[in-house]
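Need tokens for this chain, all 363 residues.
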Amino acid sequence: MVPMVDLKKQFGEIKDDVLNVLTEILGSSKYILGSRVSDLEKKIAGYHNTGDAIGVASCTDALHLSLDALGIEAGDEVITTPFTFFATVEAILYTGATPVFVDIDSDTLNIDVSGIAAHITEKTKAILPVHLFGHPADMGKIMSIAKKNRLKVIEDCAQSFGARIDGKKTGSIGDAGCFSFYPSKNLGAYGDGGMIILNNPRVAEIVRELRNHGSRGSYRHKRVGYNSRLDEIQAGILLVKFMHIGEYNEKRRRNASLYNSLLSDKIKCPVEKDGAYHVYHQYTIMTKKRNKIQQELKGKDISSVVYYPVPLHLQEALKFLGYNRGDFPVAEKAAREVLSLPMYPELEESTIARIAKIINEVI
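Here are the structure tokens for all 363 residues:
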């Protein structure tokens, strides 16, 4: 079976470095908020040119703690996209705020910035763009809207580590950037993990307290917080992989370019807008023949996944928001037609050619 991502192959290439780090950590018996977490935080802050980076347990927590630290609370509204993973909206709901959806751009599948202004009310306190599949959202326009309306901006960078827009890395542009280290991500751990980057020392201090039961130590609790700490083992693994992230992203871009060159022009392939540096966490095509293509690929032992078959506004858990089918037609069309193909740095050219041939035969 050709997998969506081949973590075994990647592990084979970095095995010695990973095992050495694990041996050192196990020998030290220091597992929580130790030197590896601090080292990773410093390296990621430097990579993004931000003042702080704070390791947490997941990207869901990163989003939640960022919203909380930035003062988003019950009664507020947060504008976001209906076409993303459920965690994006969960984090908003955890604060008691209400998610307000805006339809997506038909090319990038990111939030359509032209629709944001019409959804701003006196209750709106933040915009939460998602850099979907590795393509950055239009942050220049988003920040302009936010500044004009005095809104906070929290970037969901779960799929965009290393992506850039107009020379700036995603996560470093808004008030906070939130990353996922889920194993399949461009920079992935061997378990859950997340990171928040930001430039406001006061907010960073609040986040550090929130991730550790509202305390900075000595069993003195300044606020009610959470248990959301990136552990030493995952940080150690991430430090090894971080040394290769530039190479990993370039190989993903090379593989995407090959897919683009081989697939029929009747397939809608991913785009890369001017000024954007796409890191292709997913290589996602769009076609009305999606189901037939997926069936043919499965028959040839090739994986493919539909991200996301049900947009958020139509999820059963979110019925209480009052949205209906037809409210966001571009997102609904994407949900019917998107198909993500195998994408990872170690993917061989011959495999990409075989996948493209099968798809073109269906088309």
